[in-house]
Write a structure and sequence with these properties.
By secondary structure, the chain is of the alpha/beta class. It contains ten helices and 15 strands. It has a nine-stranded mixed beta sheet with strand order 6-4-1-10-11-12-13-14-15, with helices on both faces. Strands 3-2-8-9 form a four-stranded mixed beta sheet.
Length: 307
């Protein structure tokens, strides 16, 4: 199993709060934590923990945060050969406000080096990408780079998973390069102009995206689970019920487990079921990366729920 990720790398700054603020309000927090993050980085660490040989393609700044993030990748056995240290800007930074009671969050990001990830970075990493079973992409780097990476991988016969987060419009060209598109309900609504309030709405949105050229669409619906949509079938995969601690990184755990499962040869429905389990495990812990499950934790969780 080999997975390549082209994407974002952040340092996340958490403040835990009794409630999330409204505009103009100051809320005193109960704690502060600094943790590695960024959707690309989270998914890379998650893939590695789940047993895939994982390449990370991206950029950090020439600063202390960049050094710590590279060190963190190496601790998690992520191959950093194709990463760049960008001397023109800072490492990507995210500030996360976490509601202690509900687990909901508010996030703001200063992308820094992430917005300098370019087609050149993709070209430099093509040896790794072309050897990979899956290329995993998100939208925290320039969209032109995302499209270019998807096209280059598709040309090499590498399956592409695009997690279209954070929510943004996509150029029509990219759809034909995508094997699996994994929006949540907000992202799917933006991509299709369909307000998704039910499973039926999700199916309509998914079919519209299939018509644009995607092989499979998986729309994640939080506590309602996921909808798998293809030209030939639709399947609802229920969510696992767990106690929510922090929803940050749930989508990253989902996409990583999906990528690893597909790389192993599992079918799309089974891969989605496993991805739901990984997301469920993720939200029982604090932190986008610190909560990511290992292969052993995921297999144990699946065994218990089969029983």
């Amino acid at each position: 199993m080999i997975v390549a990720i082209v994407g974002s790398i952040h340092m996340d700054f958490y403040i835990r709060l009794p409630k999330l603020p409204v505009p103009g309000e100051t809320v005193l927090g109960h704690g502060f934590t600094m943790l590695p993050g960024g959707k690309g980085a989270n998914q890379a660490v998650a893939c590695s923990r789940l047993g895939a040989y994982t390449y990370m393609v991206g950029r950090v700044g020439n600063d202390i945060f960049g050094e710590k993030l590279i060190e963190n990748f190496r601790k998690n056995n992520v191959d950093t050969k194709y990463m760049e240290v960008d001397k023109t800007t800072h490492t990507g930074i995210a500030f996360i406000l976490l509601d202690e009671k509900t687990g909901e969050n508010m996030i703001t990001v200063a992308p820094g080096a992430d917005y300098n990830v370019s087609a050149k970075d993709v070209d430099n990493a093509m040896d790794a990408i072309s050897r990979s079973d899956i290329l995993l992409l998100q939208l925290e780097i320039p969209i032109d780079t995302v499209v270019y990476a998807a096209k280059r991988a598709w040309e090499k016969g590498v399956r592409v998973i695009l997690n279209p987060a954070p929510a943004a419009s996509l150029p029509d060209e990219i759809y034909r390069y995508i094997h699996v598109l994994t929006p949540n309900r907000v992202e799917a609504s933006l991509l299709t102009n369909i307000n998704i309030e039910s499973r039926e709405d999700a199916v309509k949105a998914g079919k519209l995206l299939i018509d644009k050229g995607v092989d499979y669409v998986i729309i994640t619906l939080g506590a309602e689970g996921s909808m798998v949509i293809s030209k030939d079938f639709v399947r609802h995969i229920p969510a696992y019920k767990v106690e929510v601690v922090d929803t940050t990184g749930a989508g990253d755990a989902f996409n990583a487990a999906l990528a690893v499962s597909l790389a192993e040869g599992k079918d799309i429905v089974e891969a989605c079921r496993i991805a739901n389990a990984a997301a469920a495990l993720q939200i029982t812990k604090l932190g986008a990366q610190s909560g990511l499950p290992t292969r052993e934790e995921l297999e144990e969780f699946l065994r218990k729920h089969r029983q």
